[in-house]
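F.,

This is the one I mentioned.
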């Protein structure tokens, strides 16, 4: 899992043994960190509040006062912290404390305010999985408590799940919903993943490191270090960003637990006093809800960031909607009016049609175990996807694959069983069912009987591109049916026959 706040990784690579109690230089502050902190400020419940107003801050203390401490004091404070997770103080942790305690003080105070909203939920969920509540501080370094946070690598949400990992832990990700951005669902997924990682390493610090770089990289670091299983002993063998991840976690844990010592106090954040959940089965837009029950549209969007199009599609099982408790009764009483509401230019009707169309083509993940003789091109043709997609979904570089490895592939939900069945088929069966084995006699009969459609080649088309637009059709099928040799070229305006099934 990629670290959104990669500033910490940059800091880790430049910190020296004699680091001083001064704020890090701007030149080593990653722009992603600043951008996502700035985006956090755009949340409705932050904007709607007086973020210059403190909660429970002594009036006698100067707001501009920035305390400093000796290294011995930092070491003592961290040593005395009560935690199931072992905490270490060293030069690396010291430098990350400077980021929180000096460079981004105002943003940290807003995060302290947001923590009062998110942390109780985190604690309840983490406790339900019987894992330490202290893991809640990972969300600080992952996302700055911004549910829409996105890394350059494509990780998303409070817990920065990559798409494949999110789906592995049950998060729905498709064109209209992304549950990586759902605070409740993504926290459940993060708790499951962290518990699984602890089961692998039996060490919470190693589990935290693996949450960032994956268990495979931690295993490699253990092997390269001669079998050592202490984070600081395998430190040099870990990916660069992971070397900073654990110190950043310890620093966040320390600063949030001792924020008063650093003259840091929660800023006022206008989050709802309580949130409740209802299930919605009819297609509605957020604009309909906002207009009928008079709820701020941006608040509705920020409480439900999982809906990418600000609309809920029609579903048989129902879709989750989070609302402040004071809006639950108005919603239930006026649900028919909400569904019936359309704005003057029918924008709601258009959006509902769009969302329902997308929902009907939702994707799901299936797994395929590579067999001897397989290659990426064949697998792509069997699953009707692109080779580049398989590489992206499975972090594959080049074309080399190994028999026995399990690939994850994304296919239409309504054809999940069809694609799962490919695991039990022989090579010949997969070739035949996917249209990669052509019978010249059958092809000629098909063409003569007229059971094909015509396709006009467009600029930039290749046979591979055209074949991928049709199920159970391969590039070789197109060559056979259209009497093309392997050296034949297609050109715009050319009409090709496409076999029907």
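My design for it:
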């Amino acid at each position: 899992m990629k670290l959104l706040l990669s500033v910490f990784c940059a800091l880790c690579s430049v910190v020296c043994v004699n680091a001083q109690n001064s704020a890090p230089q701007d030149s080593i502050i990653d722009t992603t960190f600043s951008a996502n902190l700035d985006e956090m400020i755009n949340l409705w419940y932050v904007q709607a509040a007086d973020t210059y107003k403190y909660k429970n801050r002594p009036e006698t203390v100067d707001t501009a006062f920035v305390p400093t401490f000796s290294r011995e004091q930092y070491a003592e404070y961290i040593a005395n912290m009560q935690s199931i997770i072992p905490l270490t103080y060293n030069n690396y942790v010291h430098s990350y404390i400077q980021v929180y305690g000096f460079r981004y003080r105002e943003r940290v105070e807003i995060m302290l305010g947001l923590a009062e909203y998110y942390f109780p939920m985190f604690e309840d969920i983490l406790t339900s999985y019987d894992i330490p509540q202290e893991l809640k501080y990972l969300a600080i370094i992952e996302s700055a408590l911004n549910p829409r946070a996105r890394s350059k690598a494509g990780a998303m949400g409070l817990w920065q799940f990559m798409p494949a990992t999110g789906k592995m832990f049950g998060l729905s990700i498709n064109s209209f919903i992304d549950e990586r951005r759902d605070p409740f669902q993504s926290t459940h997924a993060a708790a499951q993943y962290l518990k699984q990682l602890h089961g692998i390493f039996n060490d919470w610090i190693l589990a935290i490191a693996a949450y960032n770089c994956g268990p495979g990289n931690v295993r490699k670091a253990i092997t390269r270090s001669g079998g050592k299983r202490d984070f600081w002993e395998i430190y040099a063998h870990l990916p660069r960003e992971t070397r900073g991840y654990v110190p950043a976690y310890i620093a966040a844990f320390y600063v949030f637990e001792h924020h008063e010592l650093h003259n840091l106090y929660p800023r006022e954040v206008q989050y709802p006093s309580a949130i409740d959940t209802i299930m919605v089965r009819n297609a509605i837009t957020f604009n309909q809800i906002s207009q009928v029950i008079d709820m701020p549209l941006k608040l509705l969007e920020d409480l439900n960031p999982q809906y990418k199009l600000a609309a809920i599609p029609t579903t048989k099982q129902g879709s989750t909607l989070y609302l402040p408790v004071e809006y639950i009764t108005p919603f239930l009483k006026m649900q028919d009016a909400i569904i019936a509401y359309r704005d003057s230019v029918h924008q709601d009707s258009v959006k509902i049609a769009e969302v329902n169309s997308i929902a009907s083509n939702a994707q799901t993940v299936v797994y395929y175990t590579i067999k001897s003789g397989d290659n990426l091109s064949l697998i792509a043709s069997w699953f009707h996807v692109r080779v580049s997609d398989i590489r992206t979904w499975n972090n594959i570089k080049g074309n080399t694959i190994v028999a026995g490895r399990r690939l994850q592939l994304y296919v239409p939900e309504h054809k999940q069983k069809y694609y799962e069945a490919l695991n039990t088929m022989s090579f010949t069966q997969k070739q035949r069912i996917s249209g990669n084995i052509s019978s010249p006699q059958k092809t000629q009969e098909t063409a003569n009987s007229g059971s094909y459609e015509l396709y006009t080649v467009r600029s930039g088309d290749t046979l591979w591109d055209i074949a991928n637009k049709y199920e159970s059709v391969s590039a070789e099928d197109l060559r056979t049916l259209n009497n093309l040799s392997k050296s034949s070229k297609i050109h715009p305006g050319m009409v090709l026959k496409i076999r029907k099934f």
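The first strand starts at residue 275 and ends at 280.

Talk soon.
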